[in-house]
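Researcher: We plan to redesign the surface later, but first we want a full-length starting point. Tokens attached.
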């Protein structure tokens, strides 16, 4: 059994979080991960308070274990969902795509463990000073909105810079990634892509199939020109998006209009041509659809074996 400060801090069996993926991480997926001993996380995405409250209550019906909510700080509904997590006494809140400055005091006072996602040392230091309970250091191998640093270089630098537990994210989808994360100084991992193909994940089957057939170089980062780089699978949509970004004659507004609603088209409709299939570079090692419990058990057993045998190196 892997020992970790993060398990003690938030009351989970295994030091693994399921990332809050917009249009994907709902109550059913989060509850399955929490039931399996990890930390399931509901994505508040771009939805309103009512949506989130319903998902939180569904999750509480499906599991008595701790779970979290991810608040995407660029959401137009961030203010209202920030209140819902307090009212519903959610045990853990993770944040993404910005600084949680406005909300962190209220959350901490409500007894919520606050764990921001950071993509740089500077942001890790700032959230640690605000009182964050831990940080998720997310490398740009991950899917969705990404920073510039790789997991391998980011995690040890964040670990050296802050005194709170660090969770590694980006490119982790098997026991090797988990074991490596501990060697980098992390106390746990967060995974998105490998849970996207979980049996309990409601995402469209086309999305799961595209992840399973993806190879190592099948993702692309688009959106740099707009200031919001996003990693997704190479598809007709993402290639066209990349081409539009290079064209001087195309305006930012035209590009934004082209991208509007594309994640929903992928996750809900399974639209192969117009969807944005956000995924991390680990898609190349995600090869089968399994229950969340099996995904977690497999990763943890493999990591334990690797860590036990590590002394053979010496
Ligand atoms: O948030 C994510 N991943 C996401 S959000 C998302 S929804 C979206 N859709 C279209 C365009 C853009 C977003 C899809 N995937 N991951 C967590 C994450 N947070 N990665 C990087 C950061 C981050 C970046 C800057 C956290 C803090 C930060 O602070 C900078 C500052 O000073 O505000």
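Model: Full-length starting sequence:
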């Amino acid at each position: 059994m892997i020992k970790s400060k993060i398990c003690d801090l938030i009351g989970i069996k295994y030091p693994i979080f399921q990332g809050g993926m917009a249009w994907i991480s709902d109550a059913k997926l989060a509850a399955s991960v929490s039931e399996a001993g990890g930390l399931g996380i509901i994505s508040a995405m771009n939805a309103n308070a009512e949506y989130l409250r319903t998902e939180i209550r569904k999750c509480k019906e499906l599991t008595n274990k701790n779970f979290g909510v991810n608040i995407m700080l660029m959401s137009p509904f961030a203010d209202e969902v920030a209140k819902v997590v307090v009212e519903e006494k959610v045990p853990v809140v993770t944040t993404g795509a910005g600084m949680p400055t406005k909300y962190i005091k209220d959350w901490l006072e409500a007894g919520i463990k606050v764990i921001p996602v950071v993509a740089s040392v500077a942001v890790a230091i700032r959230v640690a000073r605000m009182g964050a309970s831990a940080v998720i250091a997310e490398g740009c191998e991950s899917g969705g909105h990404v920073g510039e640093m790789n997991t391998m270089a980011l995690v040890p630098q964040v670990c050296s810079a802050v005194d709170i537990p660090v969770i590694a994210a980006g490119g982790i989808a098997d026991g090797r990634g988990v074991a490596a994360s501990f060697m980098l100084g992390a106390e746990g991992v967060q995974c998105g892509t490998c849970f996207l193909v979980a049996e309990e994940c409601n995402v469209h089957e086309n999305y799961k199939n595209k992840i399973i057939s993806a190879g190592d170089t099948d993702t692309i980062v688009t959106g740099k020109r707009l200031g919001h780089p996003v990693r997704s699978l190479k598809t007709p949509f993402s290639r066209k998006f990349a081409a539009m970004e290079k064209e001087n004659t195309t305006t930012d507004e035209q590009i934004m209009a082209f991208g509007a609603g594309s994640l929903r088209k992928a996750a809900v409709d399974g639209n192969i041509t117009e969807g944005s299939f956000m995924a991390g570079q680990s898609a190349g090692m995600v090869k089968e659809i399994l229950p969340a419990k099996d995904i977690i058990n497999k990763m943890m057993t493999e990591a334990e074996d690797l860590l036990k045998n590590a002394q053979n190196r010496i």
